[in-house]
Amino acid sequence: MYLETRVVAVEALRAFMERLLMAVGCDAGTAATLAQVHLEADLRGVGVQGLNHLISSHLPDFRSGKIDPAGKPEVVREGDAYALIEGNSCSGPIAAIPAAELAAAKAQKAGCATVGVRNSHDLFIAGYYAELMAREGAIGFVFSDDVVPVVHPLGGTEPIIGSNPMAIAVPCEGEPFVLDFAPCATLPTYVRYAKRYGKSLPEGVVHDAEGQPITDPSQVSDGAGHQAHLGAIAPSGNKGYGLLLAIDFLSGALMGCAMGTDHATIPGAHKGHCLMAIDPAMFGGADAFRHAVSARLSQVKGSKAAPGQAEIRTPGERSFATRERSLAEGRVTVDRLCWEDALETATELGVDAPA
């Protein structure tokens, strides 16, 4: 979607994001953690969750008081194979990181564990937390109920469901297998940027308020509150529609949190996350499992490629390769308009921008 770009040094971008976060009230440790999460997205070429989301939603939510920069998560209920974390209106990653670590640790003892988070906010790159669990040897699952109702139900027209991201990470002998996606046809970030660039959206991903297919992004909800009078993003078919609702139930209802339009219409509505971990050591054995996963991925990659395809890739492979290249080169690519927004925000907050 990014049509014009800027190249920024990795460490300069990290320091810039930390300064912006401290300017809205985060302490140095919180700022460093949040900057790392957004930087990981940019390093992997997933720019919509990187500087883009820091500027378009994360910092505005701090500035408006929606997120408490001093909020700290705490475990309020737990057993051998479960825990519930109260986020105290903290930023999503500040709750999701310890939730992932706790789920993996409990799974090592109980075999499987589920950790819920309530009263938190957007965790952004869902695969990051699933990967944390995989690097501890567990199969990690992450489900997050999005606070922004932008997706219409199958057969409907109104934006009443969030984009609801999910991720699964599986340990293997190399980098983990990481599947990270939202079960909808496009993301609100792409709708927003299509509007700003004056471009059309691909056919088949959005509908107007009457349910008719369109490509004009100005007629589609991009998540700026509950915009029932506008069109909506389509779910990814009937399977995506079912997943969107299942994620509502797992991360919203199960955690005692709001779902869909309730986030926009009920004051103080809470956002929930659900993280699950399975320890392969409790079943067929950790080493045997990693070997079997790696062998299966090699088998898939070694199968016959379609005409015009140089290779067969598996989920997570491209992002890890992009991350390695970004770190080797010491730079990342960001969208031009996003960078201009970041400079404007820096001026407003009195923060020095990179040269």
Structure commentary:
- The protein has helices at 10-23, 28-43, 51-64, 92-110, 126-135, 188-197, 237-252, 262-265, 286-301, 317-329, 336-349; strands at residues 5-9, 74-79, 82-86, 112-120, 139-144, 166-170, 177-181, 206-207, 213-214, 232-233, 271-278, 331-335.
- The model has no long low-confidence stretch (mean pLDDT 93).
- The protein is α+β, with helices and mostly antiparallel strands and 355 residues long.
- The relative contact order is 0.17.
- The strands form three sheets. It has a seven-stranded mixed beta sheet with strand order 2-3-4-11-5-6-7, with helices on both faces. Strands 9-8-10 form a three-stranded antiparallel beta sheet, with no helix packed on it. A two-stranded antiparallel sheet has the order 1-12.
- It is globular, with a radius of gyration of 20 Å.
- The longest helix is centred in the first third of the chain and has 19 residues, at 92-110.
- Strand 2 (74-79) and strand 3 form a beta hairpin.
- 41% of the residues lie in helices and 17% in strands.
Q: How do the strands and helices of this protein lay out in sequence?
A:
Elements: E1 5-9, H1 10-23, H2 28-43, H3 51-64, E2 74-79, E3 82-86, H4 92-110, E4 112-120, H5 126-135, E5 139-144, E6 166-170, E7 177-181, H6 188-197, E8 206-207, E9 213-214, E10 232-233, H7 237-252, H8 262-265, E11 271-278, H9 286-301, H10 317-329, E12 331-335, H11 336-349
Parallel strand pairs: 3-4
Antiparallel strand pairs: 1-12, 2-3, 4-11, 5-6, 5-11, 6-7, 8-9, 8-10
Helix pairs in contact: 1-2, 3-11, 4-5
